[in-house]
Design goal:
It contains 4 helices and no strands. The protein is mainly α. It has one domain. The N and C termini lie far apart (about 55 Å). About 20% of the residues are buried.
């Protein structure tokens, strides 16, 4: 931006997020993205809790401390799913991803699963930046308007 330009109301960032707010009359895309993030955390919880007994029994074993660490991190992921609407929710989710990747030292298969989910979170962050860019440019579907005659009128004759 050059020095003389000012931000419109649609381009002003949310406090603490650095992301634009949805303009009036437009569905909030952040609500949907937060739902995806929360769902991903729930899927991670399920995945790690189901994999942990298998690794314990058949994967060469995991120490008791390692089992507890992965179990606690998994439960924290479930808890983090419920705080994604908070400004710090994403930071908590990303910190948990880093911790799960470090669980490679507990058992390599747990670390590999953590890395796979970290890649998924990388894609979620890419989508987040893409939505923010489109919002700033006014290119979201709801911001483009609708064709004449939309929504179709009911013909209740």
């Amino acid at each position: 931006m050059s020095g003389g330009e000012t931000l419109t109301d649609e381009q002003k960032p949310e406090p603490g997020h650095g992301l634009p707010e949805a303009p009036p009359g437009v569905r909030d895309p952040w609500k949907g993205l937060r739902g995806i993030m929360a769902g991903t955390l729930v899927l991670e919880f399920i995945t790690f809790m189901l994999a942990l007994p298998v690794v314990w029994r058949f994967g060469g074993g995991v120490s008791s401390a390692g089992f507890v660490i992965v179990a606690v991190l998994s439960v924290l992921m479930l808890a983090a799913a419920f705080v994604q609407r908070r400004p710090w929710g994403l930071a908590v989710a990303l910190a948990l991803q880093g911790a799960m990747v470090l669980c490679f030292f507990v058992h390599p298969s747990v670390g590999i699963m953590g890395a796979i989910f970290a890649a998924i979170w990388g894609y979620i962050l890419y989508l987040r930046n893409d939505v923010a860019r489109r919002m700033r440019e006014g290119q979201l579907y709801d911001q483009l308007g609708h064709p004449p005659g939309y929504p179709p009128e009911d013909k209740a004759d």
